[in-house]
Amino acid sequence: MSVSRGSLYGASSIGVYGVATDKYAIIPADIPEKFEREVEADLKVEIIKGAVLESFLLGVFIAANSNGMILPRLVRDEELNLFRKTIDAEIEILDVKETALGNLILANDKAALVSPIIPRKALKRIEDTLGVEVMQKNLAGSNLVGAIAVVTNKGLLACPLATDEELDELEDFFKVKADIGTINRGNIFVRSGMLANSYGAIVGSETTGPELMRIQQTLYT
Q: Which class for 221: exposed (0-12), middle (13-18), buried (19 or more C-beta within 10 A)?
């Protein structure tokens, strides 16, 4: 297990630019070679380069686990085809008006928490694509469930506004240990500052020592 600090495009909000699962990681096509090597070394998975909606904000637009990947309805044909050619997983488009699916779906290989913003009619598609049980509700009073928490197959880190009752429910649902924490000197949107899977993580360069310790204790012990 490896957890290291890094920055991308001069920013510590590295999580908005990528997606990590236990089978693959998706990063921008123009990513610096040094950062690509760090992702490969820390996450220990195949690296895929791509874009969504002609944007490199992959962590915002994509919801994924090892079984599948969900893309917004406005994804370009060439972007979709690239993913289908390079990723050995179910890849589906979610036909809803919401596009920031990475902010609205929190998933590992065991379960997925879906924001109430997403219409209930889409839940079956999410369940089938990711191959997991789905639950729809807010977290810590927020509908941005994929932005205020990070979950792997080993642990879940939620923002400090999550209650003890919510953490207990999340532990039971995702079948992992859950705790609260922040990233990049107190940022509660923990997903924005982290790329993580079961093998390791890269966190934003502004992440403090205590924050890093909480991440290691929650996700990797």
A: exposed
